[in-house]
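Here's what a typical entry looks like (Solute-binding protein family 5 domain-containing protein):
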Amino acid sequence: MKERLTMRTAWTIRGCRKGVLLLLLMHVLLGGLVAVAAEPDTIVMALNRDQDNMDPHLHFQRTGIIMNINMYDSLLHKNPQLAYEPSLATAWKTIDDTTWEFTLRQGVKFHNGDPFTAEDVQFSFERVLDPATKSPQYGNIRAIKTVKIVDTHTVQLITDKPFPLLLERVVFFPIIPKKHFTQVGAQAFAESAPAGTGPYKFVEWKRDQYLKLERFAEHWRGAAPVKHLVIRVIPETSTQVAELKTGGVDIIRNLAPDLIPDLKAHANTYVSTAPILRTHYLAFDMREPPFDKKEVRQAANYAVDRKAIVDKLMGGLGLVLPTVVHPMAFGHDATVEGYQYDPKKARELLKQAGFPNGTDITIHAGVSEAFFRQIAEAIAEMFTEVGLRTNLKLWDPGPAWDKFFRGEGKATHGYYGTWGYYSTFDADAILHPLYHTEPGGWVGKWYARVQGLDALIEAARSTLDKDKRLSTYATVQRLLKDEAPSLFLFAQHDMLGINKRLDYAARGDEWIWLYDAKLRK
């Protein structure tokens, strides 16, 4: 099987690269690839799909976060080294185990001119906590029960019990202007009149075409080095790459690994990569056959050659994980050993589970990039090789998540996807959404059924005692290894293609924070 994957993968990658290069050549021959003169004082970023709206409290997909992150500020920020920095809060402290107090920065203005005050902080948190808002970010901050205004520039976040993730969660919790939002209404704010305190302000949004931003001259950090920021929606990878080379685009993300050597070698481009939390997994529906049997779930984990996938399909830009907890996340236990590739063991376990001739399964995957599709196909092939004959269904990630919300995530035997932790460097940020079974939850609601796991996850997120949390997470990871509620895979790198006129480096939190970007002279 390893030989087969290697041959199939090599063919797939060569075919993919040839397809992209052929498209680029066609552009040239047809006059479509004309050198584009870079706009002065402008950064152009390309994404493969558009955001749903510009309301930062209604995003949970990475595309929306990236498109809006430069317009809004949070109470705290992380620098490129991922250390906390003051942002809209200049200082913070714990009053007791459930009360966090934040001193707010004075003299800050929103893009529409409104002054930033404690009322805006209170309004922003209470809006997401209000069930009527239906914010997908509710779960991130639901531990907060009260937002108390102490004075104009001091607020307290009071949780229902000790909540160790609070600082991590407020790093990307955008603050919006209460007065402006109330005046223009939710729809206008989301579509035509957003306002934050970030380094860039809104100019124009044409759905499925572009978002235009302009630096905010009165930004409290000082004006951004580059005046204009344009985010273009370019679904085709070949077009993104072509425009990156000719200067029509300055930065593209989620590079297919097989394109990296070409962009490294090109005179006008370079590549920046960084390990990130984004973790690949395949959740099994433990409520229904065949994955209600532990032996079948374990067999699936023995069936997959993770190292071959990382080496061949990710170009080595990934880290095989024993479970789903990343080494960069608090709570990772380095002593837990992962499943080894052992197709013989997989077949034996299937036989023990009552499937000597294997069984048919259907897996769906939310994919947008070509290399994600290749990974899903490789997994399906390896499953089939040991007797888990796999019918693979590919969904666009946006509609795929909509299906979860409508209750259709349970339609198949498993779901392959990725989880970016909301850039929260704590084990809870992946354990709770993937495995907790509460109503209204994420993946775990539809798939995971591990006795005692909910209670362990709750215990670890309900104490500030780091040693207790580490001990609980060690127990959780051993339980995960044994019960195998998922196919444990790997964490990837962020992979950015950048035009040499722009100076920027990939970050470990998957943000594209262009206040730090500079145009080279």
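The longest strand covers residues 269-284.

More examples are in the samples folder.
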